[in-house]
Amino acid sequence: MFRILAIVCCAAWLAACSPTFDWRPVAFGQGGAAGVLPDTPQTQARPVMFEDRTLNLTMRSARAGGVLFALGAADLPPEWADDAAARRRLARWAVDALYRNVGAEPPGPETDPEQRVSFEGRGPQGPVRVEAQIKVTATEWLEAVVIAGPDDYASAPVGDFWLSLRWPGGAAGTATPGSAPQ
């Protein structure tokens, strides 16, 4: 009897410690980007300086256990609609900033800045894994990011987040749980 009670107590304790992934649809940006977050999103806006411009980046994020999921968007100046070089510089700068924020070496200039990336770095609590994708359209800077400690990352359904992602123009996210980033 005691053994059964111990097993039930352990199972209840483990269930209470497991993060809940209550996926909720979230639209971000103005051009139809959407994804899911694992809880009620928190919204935070902040000005970001890029070259001679201030872009107002709004991030919608939610945590599940030790995993942070975030979707962000910022409107671009209207004159950038015809300036592909400025938009490419922004995409490169945004990717490099993600790497620098966790003390990792950014990829070289030959890497497509709008391809999904996955890399290791260091956060305030220790090692972290970051998976992110940046898209810069004629009107918006968009990003999707997952940040977690290696153990939390390995046990989270990160693939569900990437599969839910829809970029403007109908492009879908891709992921297979445990697969390399696309």
Write the layout of secondary structure elements.
Elements: H1 2-17, E1 24-28, E2 33-37, E3 42-50, E4 53-64, E5 67-75, H2 84-101, E6 117-123, E7 126-136, E8 140-148, H3 150-155, H4 158-164
Antiparallel strand pairs: 1-2, 3-4, 4-5, 5-8, 6-7, 7-8
Please give a structural write-up:
By secondary structure, the chain is an alpha+beta fold. It has one domain (20-170): Protein Transport Mog1p, Chain A, CATH 3.40.1000. It is 26% helix and 37% strand. It contains 4 helices and 8 strands. The chain has helices spanning 2-17, 84-101, 150-155, 158-164; strands at residues 24-28, 33-37, 42-50, 53-64, 67-75, 117-123, 126-136, 140-148. A 6-stranded antiparallel beta sheet has the order 3-4-5-8-7-6. Strands 1-2 form a two-stranded antiparallel ribbon. 27% of the residues are buried. Residues 104-125 are annotated as: Disordered. This is Lipoprotein. Keywords: Signal. Residues 1-22 form the signal peptide.
Which regions contain 5 or more consecutive residues with pLDDT less than 50? Answer: 1-18, 176-182
CATH architecture: 3-Layer(aba) Sandwich
Estimated structural class: alpha+beta
Q: How confident is the prediction overall: mean pLDDT?
A: 85
CATH T-level fold name:
Protein Transport Mog1p, Chain A
| Order of the strands making up the biggest sheet | 3-4-5-8-7-6
How is the main sheet built? 6 strands, antiparallel
Oligomer: single chain
Approximate helicity band: 25-40%
Number of helices: 4
The number of distinct structural domains comes to 1
Strand fraction equals 35-45%
| CATH class term | Alpha Beta
Radius of gyration: 18 Å
Distance between the termini: 51 Å
Order of helices and strands: HEEEEEHEEEHH
Described by the principal axes of the CA atoms, the overall outline is: globular
User: How many strand elements?
Assistant: 8
Keywords: Signal
Organism: Castellaniella hirudinis
Protein name: Lipoprotein
